[in-house]
Amino acid sequence: MINDLDLSNWKELDILTDDLWLFASRDKTGKHKNVYHGNFIPQIPYQLISRFTKAGEVVLDAFCGSGTTLYECEKLGRKFIGLDLNPQILDFVSSQMQKSKSDFYRLNSCDNTDENSRILN
Ligand SMILES: C[S@@+](CC[C@H](N)C(=O)[O-])C[C@H]1O[C@@H](n2cnc3c(N)ncnc32)[C@H](O)[C@@H]1O
């Protein structure tokens, strides 16, 4: 199995099975502030993380921006590595995580197109 979903009960799951995902509104709960240009709605990483990972596994977002994927990982009990070119937005994400008990995440400012860029400190 690639996830923790109980597929014997798939119709009751919080997983969209249509080919078109429709969300009535953006999830703005918790740490999701919708303050960063181009951030995606939290329900997208929620669906993908739930389908393709299990609790405790590591999710990498190489363009993590304002941390939408990280906050969903925290909610779902996944570890997280976030990379981004923009150190200011990573400072914002770090400040959001000050209120978190989770230490299951790493953030690093780097240019993903630069093969000499360090991945993690
Ligand atoms: C559309 S935003 C991602 C938004 C994120 N999914 C969210 O929900 O907040 C794209 C991000 O990619 C980063 N980025 C662009 N080019 C990059 C590169 N070469 N290396 C690392 N990050 C890069 C930008 O700084 C920006 O934060």
TrEMBL record:
Pfam families in UniProt: N6_N4_Mtase (PF01555)
Keywords from the named record: Methyltransferase, Transferase
Protein's name in the database: DNA methyltransferase
Residue ranges the record marks as coiled coil: none
Keyword check for Methyltransferase: yes
GO BP, sorted A to Z: methylation
Residues annotated as signal peptide: none
Residue stretches making up the DNA methylase N-4/N-6 domain: 11-91
GO molecular function, one term: methyltransferase activity
Domain of life: Bacteria
InterPro entries tied to this protein: DNA_methylase_N4/N6, RM_Methyltransferase, SAM-dependent_MTases_sf
